[in-house]
Design goal:
This protein is of the alpha/beta class. It is built from 8 helices and 10 strands. Strands 1-10-9-6-2-3-5 form a 7-stranded parallel β-sheet. The protein starts with a strand and ends with a helix. Bound molecules: 2-phosphoglycolic acid (PGA).
Length: about 240
């Protein structure tokens, strides 16, 4: 794992943006894996800016998001469909047909998971997967205890995850209890992984990822086994 140490959130976002822009320019049909949450917002702001300034085009880019809440439709402001549209897609020249997120309101959720997995395989894998890390070590919504062999599946969200995400909802009760997420193995199939870590609240998780044992009890630890991981972490995350 390569670690790039940066001063703060802005520098992390800047570096991540440069990296993604270069990848898009380098590849004919780039496939990006995208994440939600607070961490990638600065990256998305900068990608929008780069697109506006015509430094990069998303016309040939396809995207796959990691996860979606079960029960929230595309227009629900707390759904990840809505987040991605507001924070990135509606501002850039991407073809909406090339944008993929799991459908959290699918009638048959298991079939939705299988179909999503197949779409990723048909796209010939994700070139660069952007990841954040949860304080409990989750990646995507793969909570502690998730099998490393898992593919896209429905999960019960940890109470700690629901509490961490309650800040986006009116109350904790409104935070969904289930989600669809790409599995650990789906994430590990990505050709490259770009993990962004910012803030002292993530320092324990980052330390465990870098120095702890590889264990399903700490899902992000599997990244030690991936051959192409770049971590961009700021001082607060590195030093606590
Ligand atoms: P955050 O979420 O970026 O909002 O901290 C990261 C995660 O839970 O994976």
């Amino acid at each position: 794992m390569e670690i790039i140490k940066v001063k703060d959130y802005d520098e992390m976002s800047e570096k991540a943006c440069s990296y993604i822009v270069e990848k898009i320019k380098e590849l004919q049909e780039p496939v990006l894996g995208l994440a939600t949450g607070s961490t990638p917002e600065g990256l998305y702001d900068r990608l929008i800016q780069q697109n506006k300034e015509q430094n990069v085009s998303f016309k040939n880019v396809s995207t796959f998001n990691l996860d979606e809440y079960v029960g929230l439709g595309n227009d629900d402001p707390n759904s990840y469909h809505y987040y991605m549209n507001e924070k990135l897609f509606k501002h850039i020249d991407i073809d909406k047909n090339n944008v993929n997120l799991p459908n959290g309101v699918a009638k048959d959720l298991d079939k939705e998971c299988q179909d999503y997995e197949k779409k990723i395989i048909d796209a010939k894998k994700v070139d660069v997967q952007v990841l954040g890390i949860g304080i409990n070590g989750h990646i995507g919504f793969n909570e502690p205890g998730t099998a490393f062999t898992s593919r896209t599946h429905v999960v019960d969200l940890d109470e700690s995850t629901r509490e961490a995400n309650a800040r986006f909802f009116a109350s904790l009760e409104e935070v969904p209890k289930k989600a669809i997420t790409m599995g650990i193995d789906s994430i590990m199939q990505s050709k490259e992984i770009l993990l962004l870590v910012s803030g002292s609240s993530k320092s324990e998780a980052l330390d465990r990822l870098l120095n702890g044992e590889v264990s399903e009890e700490f899902p992000a630890s599997i990244l030690q086994k991936h051959s192409n991981v770049m971590i961009i972490a700021d001082e607060a995350a590195l030093n606590g």
